[in-house]
Amino acid sequence: MNRRHKTKRWARPVTVTTALAITAALLPTGAAYAGGTAGVAAPAAAGVTASATDAALAAAPGAQPNVVYIVLDDMGFSDLGSYGSEIKTPNIDKLAAGGLRYTNFHATPLCSPTRASLLTGRNPQAVGMGSVANVDLGPEYPHTRGRVSPTAATAAEVLKGGGYTTLGVGKWHQAPLHQATPAGPFENWPLGKGFQRYYGFLDGYTDQYAPQLIEDNHVVDPPKKEDYHLTEDLAEHASRYVSDHVSVQPEKPFFLYWGLGAQHAPHQVPQRNADLYKGVYEAGWDRIREERFERQKKIGLIPEDTPFPARDAGIAAWSSLSQQQKDLYVRYQQTYAGMLTQADEQIGHFLDDLRKFGKLDNTLIYLISDNGASKAGGENGSIGYSQSGFGGGSGGTLEDKLESIEELGAAGTYTEYPVGWAQVSATPFRQYKGTAYNGGVQVPLIVHWPDGIKDRGALRTQFHHVSDLTPTVYEVLGITPPQQVNGIPQQPITGTSLAYTFSGQNEPTRKKTQFFLMNGNRAIWSEGWKAVALRKPGVQLEQEAWELFDTRSDYNESRNLAQQYPEKLKELKKIWDEEARNNGAYPIVNGYSSPAVTAAAPIRSSFIYYPGLKHIGLSAAPKLKGISYEISIPIQRKEVKEEGVLVAAGGSDSGYTLYLKKNELIYEFHQFGKVYRIVSDTPVPLGKAEVKFVYTRAGEKGGSGALYVNGRKAGEAELPFTDVRSTDGLDIGRDTLLPVSLDYGDPDEFPFTGLLEKVEFKLQPLADSKK
Ligand SMILES: [Ca+2]
Ligand SMILES: [Ca+2]
Predict the structure, then answer these.
(1) How far apart are the CA of 8 and the centre of ligand 2, in A?
(2) Nearest ligand to residue 440 Cα
(3) CA distance 133 to 203
(4) pLDDT of amino acid 47
(5) Does an H or E element contain 524, and which?
(6) How far is the CA of 370 from the centre of ligand 1 (A)?
(7) Which of 108, 580, 661, 755, by CA, is between 20 and 30 Å from 27?
(8) Would you state the pLDDT for residue 400?
(9) What mean pLDDT is reported for the chain?
(10) What CA–CA distance (Å, rounded) separates 463 from 165?
């Protein structure tokens, strides 16, 4: 595969502040904190009181703590230094050393559901986010709408009503992606959900060098800064938003939500940062996993008697790998680790700013990961979409990846580490993102609040869940969430505040039950017992085997007691069923494979786009998969040198572009290293002209593309398909972010310099094809 990029983005030197490093070994063990001084903050001013009306959301009196949620993505339980890792995360470790680390904290198995749960204090199905925001099954499936129901106000809405300034940066993934257009609709965008300012991205992931960005209710143009990286950009915006706020309204508290793109794929970081880990990962994933495990015991994060889980069946012993494989796999993990160190550094800059503003001690900060480590990179990892099962590509061969090893981590790639490293991230657990085993849902939680938590650097072992974090904030702020918001009656909040753990080190958990469901993967935790069932395609739900664990004596789910305690399992399955009913989780669906995935997206067979339209994400662009269609574009030119892109989608890894250059009309389709190109056989006349691309589907597989100039066929080629998979979307009159063609030449985005009247897509009526 030969994937070139318009610019190489490797140059930026990154300094890692090792002086701040607190190695895991230096952090005291949990045992050392027995009897430590503990103090819970008295609830701040009694602020807001319960009422059935919106009017009850009166401003809270002053000196309220500020609140910051920092959400890392797809980062496993063991990846932070303070959770046993060799990865350098000195700033986050400092946060841990000044606050609390939780050893028994759980997210949901996936991105959007965790964020919905975090922001609302409820279970994801109950609020409409049973799957990711990409999946909107329509009104018949209220548990899977790709959005948060207005019956479950977010922390931003409630805190804004309580007198807070509400700020957000980074990953949103809480609006159905068919609404991610320059024209909304906006009710599920951050500003529709209680944020007053927001800068970030709507999708579940984006290219770190060429991200699809929004600010407030606007799609914004791509960053033009040399050596740009999204993680730095988000940190700068987080700092600026807070700086603006404290400069102008220092007496008023703020709430900041910060969702990092890190550590979701694509794993992209300047080479210099990855190079920090030269010589580290040659030890191999078996050895690194053992070392993390031993460190976790030493820190006291995991019980002494925790058994070391066997290597997964699908992962090769490091010693059995070829040198070429080792070289490739080491590069992936260097990139992953370098990306996390960069994220840590940026979090450190933000925390330094908070300190400068005099706000660090009076700010309650949570830092979590939204789910466990991802195994989507498969056996060999991925460098391009073509190599990623997640991106829908073929998976690619080891040879493909070795061939593109120098591209690893660069702009336009979809770099993701192989499952061997995901198991290291999951130490000491089994399984990954997407399942309700510990490896999918047990994640770090660090709470830092010097004014409210006197116990420093201590561990907390109580079972808790991401839906408990916002209820905790309401409790410590003395805010009773209103029964109506915007005139809409609110569902009860089901999370359990963990504020009692701020002082109560040894107090048993107040959580009684926690229910998990993700694409048919199920689990229930109840008073220390946990039952888990993994969805098996083709097997009836009722026939699936459940495993049973006593988590009080079995920290990492290593002893299945289902045979030994059938009655206990039966009881837990009954509780699961009750919880599923209480949370509106039936019928159980697999969001990805459901035929109704796009049911709620507007179905149209005609799209007319006018010049000046901002970038549109692929989820909201015309769907070209498996259908015949045409794109017709009336233009007007005075001179031959008027040229440029008429319409383009995606980038050079996967994308199409229709452009004029040197008086020729050119169509290119790029897919995973292959380039299909059609060039008009006659010049495009000056003056008014209509150019057209027509794609004709031929049966189940295959098809052909043709160019027309003023109604006359001007070129034709076989084209097996033309649908695009990319972090980049659709542009009219230019090609932003990742350029599709390598032939544009110098001008940035290669904007069309003639007159472009409109770009019209006419799709084969969808009734004729599968939706
Ligand atoms: Ca995630
Ligand atoms: Ca592009």
Answers:
(1) 16
(2) 1
(3) 8
(4) 34
(5) strand 521-526
(6) 5
(7) 108
(8) 86
(9) 89
(10) 31
